[in-house]
Amino acid sequence: MNPPRDSLSAVLHRWRVDPPADPNFRAAVWQRVDAQARATWPAYVRSHATAWSLAAVVMLGVAAYSGTALAQARVRAEREAMVINYLVDLDPRVQAVLKP
What we know:
Elements: H1 5-14, H2 25-37, H3 41-47, H4 49-90, H5 95-98
């Protein structure tokens, strides 16, 4: 059988949580704030080494991909220019059509 709802509501209404007060709470918080404020850049990087390593790997990957794409585009453009120069040298009649 289910208990009546009024009793549950009354129990929840009377329920209170009163944790004991920690007298050193404020001092402990300020100690942690001061410790973080005095931390140096190398200490910060050491404590966050995983995130910085991941960021470095991602940046390296993006740089490698971008460099490869730019190099391939440049090679294609230079190849096209060489083909046009070669064809113009073979047949001067196509100079007007192929000259960039």
